[in-house]
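I'll show a typical protein example:
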Amino acid sequence: MIIDRQRARLGAALAAVVVVAGGGGYWLGAAYNPTVAPIANAAPARKILYYYDPMVPQEHYDDPNTLSSMGMKTQPKYAEEGNTGTSEPAGIKVNPAAMQNLGIRVVTAQMGSLSSALNVTGSIDFNQRDVAIIQARAGGFVSRVYGHAPGDVVRAGAPIAEVQLPEWGSAQAEFLSVRRLGNPALTAAARQRLRLMGMSDGVIEGVARSGRTSGTVTITTPISGVIQTLDARSGVTLAMGQTLAQVTGIGSVWLNAAVPEAQAGAVRVGQSTTAMLAAFPGERFSGRIITMLPTAQADSHTLTVRIELPNPAGKLRPGMFAQVALGGDAHPALLVPSEAIIRTGTRTIVMLSTSEGHYRPAQVRTGGEGGGQTEILEGLAAGEKVVASGQFLLDSEASLTGLDVRPLTGSTK
């Protein structure tokens, strides 16, 4: 008898464990399965829309005994029933109690202001429009060079070399002779000849004032900048027009920024920019776009945008890396969070929240992007709700159940 009582108590305990385990398993299933609703809220018999194979959800059949193109038995697709008992468009139903566990967050598409600001990267380069070529105006030879080398920074008027030019000496002697005749017309003609030979007004006035010829000329740089090349060497014979040095100005520099092809339409010549460099934290350098190069980089699919930056202090050095913000005018747009957008490769969709706990995919056409917001050009209306977090789980469920995507319905603008 004692043994029978123990067996009865053990059987009752096991039965209780089975009941608790079964109830807990159902609760877990209901909490994590988007298609499961609590038993207390179970709807009556649902309407069958069609039969389909989850492996090929685009195929719909009316006969439940029809096999799909994959040779698989089809299963019914049911119409969802709303809380009011009226039929709603087919969608995915998620138990509201499970939304937090699934990380589903819903936001409302609304009108806002979208700025066309674009953040890209670039590097500093010389301004190739600010270049001075220093040449010999006549044949001669270099009598002296000053202590410069390529890469040196020089100011405007800095001496490069002293050059002996015999032709200049004879032309100056002729000018002095004509000047002594006292004929203003002849003197003006002789002075103009010296100018055509390349003599500056300062050199001519020096000859006229002193009354002596000087075939030795000090060649100076006309601009401030960096010496790029220096071919002047003491004792070297020069031909007329031979280059002695090349100087590139640094009063302004170019910033070559790489803009992705997909965003090149938001860039225009004259647009304002702001550059930030790691060498000068917290400092911003303002500039403007002066041109867009005509060719794209095939390997990176980017376009090069050339920006001119003032550089009065000479702080910006070619080769420096910069973060660039390309400013743009803001315009009104229908906006949703960029994270709500699902790009499949062939189309762009969002997950709509059609009612409490019901979701369906909708195709959209997107525009610009900025500040974590994406412009919707077509496919949504202001006030519609979209899923901003957890949408990929719902999209996978929609694909498995063969749920149709709502097509584009027209422009929102």
Residues 80 and 90 are 6 Å apart (CA to CA).
